[in-house]
Design goal:
The chain is mainly beta. The chain has one domain. Helix content is 7%, strand content 26%. The protein has 1 helix and 4 strands, in the order E-E-E-H-E. A 4-stranded mixed beta sheet has the order 3-1-2-4. The longest helix is centred in the middle third of the chain and has 5 residues, at 45-49. The N and C termini lie far apart (33 Å). The mean pLDDT is 87. The structure holds zinc ion (ZN). Zinc ion (ZN) binds next to helix 1.
């Protein structure tokens, strides 16, 4: 089962999964889930890096492998 980036007109292979929780106004970026989730969006590296949270929302990057940015220690 080949999965593709959720962005229109992008057929790149996804590496991250984006999910939302509306009642908490949180956007999560995770390593690609093993199985496609109808409530989540699979994104390729290019589009995954461009994700921004809507105004008033909190973006939480839960990926294990960060190339740059904040240390992962907080996640425990
Ligand atoms: Zn893409």
């Amino acid at each position: 089962m080949a999965r593709k980036c959720s962005r229109t007109a992008c057929s790149a292979r996804p590496t991250v999964t984006l999910s939302f929780q509306y009642n908490r106004a949180v956007v999560w970026i995770d390593d690609l889930l093993d199985e496609a989730d109808p409530h989540s969006y699979d994104l390729c590296p290019k589009h995954g890096e461009r994700v921004t949270a809507p105004t008033g929302w909190h973006l939480e990057d839960r990926r294990r492998r960060h190339s740059h940015g904040f240390p992962d220690r907080i996640a425990g």
